[in-house]
Here is the input.
Amino acid sequence: MTIADRLNDKTLFQTQSFINGAWVKGEGAVAVTNPSNDEVIAEIGDVGAAGARAAVDAAAAAFETWKKVSPFERAKLLMKWHALILENADDLGQLITLEMGKVLREAKGEVLYGASFIEWSAEEAKRIYGETIATPFPGTRGWTTHAPIGVVGCITPWNFPNAMITRKCAPALAAGCTMVIKPAPETPLSALALAELAKRAGIPDGVFNVVCGDAQEIGPVLTGSDAVKMVGFTGSTAVGKLLMRQAADGVKRVALELGGNAPFIVMDDADIEAAADGVVASKFRVSGQTCVSANRIIVQASVADKLVEALEKRVSALKAGDGFDGSTDVGPLIHHTAVERVDALVRNARDSGARIITGGKPMVDELGGSFYAPTLIEGGSADMDVACFEIFGPVASIYRVEDEAEAIAMANDTPYGLAAYLYTRDVSRVHRMTEALDYGMVGVNAPMVGAASTPFGGVKESGIGREGGKWGVEEFTELKYVLLGGVD
Ligand code: SIN
Here is the structure.
């Protein structure tokens, strides 16, 4: 049965969590809606704290055998999961568009992006190397190994309902860990579909569990259970801080990918047309609802008019609409409340003296309550809300600066430090400025930074740890040192 068949007969959605290889119904019915038209597409029961405990117990039991499965075998199972995801990529893409609204081509792109983490991790499973170490003690040898950390509890977001699961699970499973995933209540279906495919791939029961329900109930089980050794989270900085506090009692490892306030710096020697394309790609992808979206476009004053003109042309041509419509550039936001929040930011900017160049309003009458017009604004004060907070919507705001020093000072003037972007053709400037930017990732003449092979993560209040590449696998391991004596 394909995912699409299950979508049609709704069996996937009548089974609401996936615990120890079995579909489990929860209590009540939390509606999952298509943000594009507010239609209820599924109703998901809540398995609550008891369900979360059952999943943790299952993951703990499964860990005892999974950690001993040879990395070559783990890699094979992951590659089967990968192949099944690719086989079902169209259906999985549709599921993403249906439950969170993003444009279908972006949704399909996300499925491939998500699958790439599984492929990379499967390959990496075989390359988790230790080292031998010179010791100061006569007659000894020292070495290190990377042991899987154990059961990992992950809380995943709605903006990438597929890829933010695979980016965590694939390296964890490759390393020998087992998982309990709590997906966002807005987007449980992609998580359940991944569970279905994991089961078909032969990933053993209890290794990959999905629990749906109330975060207030499930979160504390994940952060509080002795059996859970690590907590992973992608989402807001406020929730990340809360989880970190909760996890502190058990001195659990945390991997947090939190909010951002990405500067997109355009210097006077940049290719302005390429920079304008880059702003649109970074800012309007997923309707601006990514943690790495350009949040502040910081441009050197001498080329600002040229950039504003190039952006006005592009942003005013963007078409908002349903994600399934092939002509749509920008889909809906996740909720009506997200639209209200974005509109409040724009109104605050207007009140602070910013000029609305295009957009600047909800599209309730034209398209429905979850749509906001692609917006370009300029000016206003440096401390207005749109400059200080993560916008998470299709609003680009431009700030003029005189020189490099001012650009860096403005870029770093935030508690966040996830991604930054820099457009310049001067190699010395690339070195000077990338070194001065307090960010975990910097895209130079490149509007998108994430890939299976590269380290994704932030500094300051944007998080702890890295996902992706060899670093993403290492996060799920404990470094163990062994000293052997009596070697004559
Ligand atoms: C995110 O917004 O958290 C993920 C974005 C990406 O991986 O590019």
